[in-house]
Amino acid sequence: MSDETFTAEQVDRAVQALSDHPERFEHAQEVVGHAAPGLGGVLDQALDAGGWFGVEHESQIAAITAIPDIHDRLGAVRELVSQETRLGMLVGVAVGFELHRELHRNHDEENR
Question: What pLDDT, on a 0 to 100 scale, did the predictor assign at position 65?
Answer without folding.
Answer: 96
